[in-house]
Amino acid sequence: MSNPVLVCALRGIDAYEVLAGALKGLTQCRERLSTSGSLPQVVMALTPEVTFRQAILFFTEADFVTVTLQEHTYHSFQSLCFCFSVGESWRCRAESLYTYLHAGAQVLCTVLLIKPGVWSQNLARILRNLHLEKFTIVGMKHTNLEPAIALGLLPSEVKQDPAALGAHCTYLTSGTALVLCLQRPNAVKKLMDLLGPEDPKLAQALDPCLWRAQYGTNTVHNGFYGSKSYQMAVRDMKLFFPEGLCCAKCQMLEEEEV
Predict the structure, then answer these.
(1) CA-closest candidate to residue 232, choices 184, 192, 174, 202
(2) CATH H superfamily, domain 107-241
(3) In the 8-state DSSP scheme, what is residue 243?
(4) pLDDT digits (tens, 9 = 90+) for 75-88
(5) I need a surface site. Which of 84, 106, 112, 146 has the fewest CB within 10 A?
């Protein structure tokens, strides 16, 4: 090839799907411009296996951009993909990610709160489903939420609506909730995928097997609260389990002081 090639290693949630969408948009842009050579020709790895094989061809162990432990533990093996394009070459000295490519998805903790009236009637079934999804329970307590804590669990869009805010807080503080700390590879995303959208009707339309579709009736009585991100999971663990967890200590928990 007569022109230089830029080789990029990219990280992100659902990286393959997101990058494929971006490249599709790039192709459409090129077609609209109709100017040959104005935009680079691009090809990407389509699977984690191909990604790894291409990585060892183009990168040494010192070539990856340093990221924090928090980012390491949140992203999985499938969050790394490669994009090749025509352009100027560059290289950055940094920390290797090959260890994480070999290790695969990292074991994380997340928090599931089963709302009042739901856990007392469906606990056995919910615990069985958690077992089938390979979650390990490393913390459990039932609690009557204080209004301030209930408020902290609500998304920003709910807080902007006084009527919705009042309804959510009234329900969350109306009885005993069960709080579980769960552990498994990619626990945060896996739990969110199982719960489904906040609106049970939307969840029902997407997949009747989603947990909010099964146990929820409306956006207030939707059955569950789950930590939506790694950062929120750490916050929720510190909030509900300040005494600690019954899981084995790992570097991630020590770094986060959980």
Answers:
(1) 192
(2) Nucleoside diphosphate kinase-like domain (3.30.70.141)
(3) T
(4) 433 344 555 444 33
(5) 146
Residue for token pair 């459990």: 140
CA distance 45 to 188: 26
As given in the structure block, the two tokens for residue 154 are: 């609500």
Pairing mode of beta strands 80-86, 5-11: antiparallel
Domain ranges of the chain: 1-29+41-65+89-103, 107-241
- Give 1-57 pLDDT, tens digit per residue: 567 788 888 777 667 778 888 888 776 666 665 555 555 667 788 777 787 778 778
Look at the pTM and tell me if it is higher than 0.90: no
Helix (H, G, I), strand (E, B) or coil at 172: helix
pLDDT digits (tens, 9 = 90+) for 27-40: 666 666 555 555 56
In terms of Cα–Cα distance, which of 178, 75, 73, 175 is closest to 130?
Answer: 178
Give the start-end residues of each E strand in the chain: 5-11, 42-44, 80-86, 107-114, 136-143, 177-185, 224-226
* Tokens representing residue 197 in the block: 């959208």
